[in-house]
Amino acid sequence: MELFLDTAELDEIVKYRDFIDGVTTNPSIMSKYKLSDHGSLIKEICKVVSGHVSVEVISQKYDDMVKEGRRISKICDNVCVKLPCTSDGLRACKTLSIKGIPTNLTLCFSSIQALLAAKCGATYVSPFLGRLDDNGHDGMLLVEEIVEIFDAQGYETKVLSASVRNLQHVIQSARVGASAITISPQIFGQCLQHHLTTLGLERFSEDFQKSK
Ligand code: G3P
Q1: Number of domains into which the chain is organized
Q2: For residue 163, how far is its CA from the centre of ligand 1 (angstroms)?
Q3: Tell me: the pLDDT tens digits for 50-103?
Q4: Domain coverage including residue 115
């Protein structure tokens, strides 16, 4: 399972670089950096991780998305162009995929959108678990359904669990066979610690000191 960090914060990416395969960003994440051009920040991120760095287009019309996607893909070899699961986004995905440009189809809320993304040659499709849960649905069921459909149809598009809100989302995504997941630095911090491990280590250390 590929692990991505959902951030553009360089310090956090460096902190978790030994555990992650790549990075995902979105316009909300990038908006925190008041830069006229985010290209230099993306280049820095691409130097830290060897796997895919997803960068989302801002355009919403097919022609503009293709143009912007091609420009984004030239920033670095490991950039993956993130496109929304709209009609224009899916068409742009098909065009960019034919040119060999990796794509990540985002804002996926249904298995039909995922199926279309796979048919358009997407490298990844990102179902948004947390936002579905927030709206009274079960995000994990969608991930499970997409994995089942891709397996049944033999699609190579990878299911990337996104909008991850808790450790159960991480565990369940792995269990149902998601190929990838993107996690915020905050959730990643939680993944790396367990209170019983901390407590156990303290006790081992105390016992060992007493024996001296
Ligand atoms: O980057 C896409 C996704 O992970 C965003 O999640 O928490 O804004 O719903 P969230």
Answers
A1: 1
A2: 4
A3: 999 999 999 999 999 999 999 999 999 999 999 999 999 999 999 999 999 999
A4: 2-211
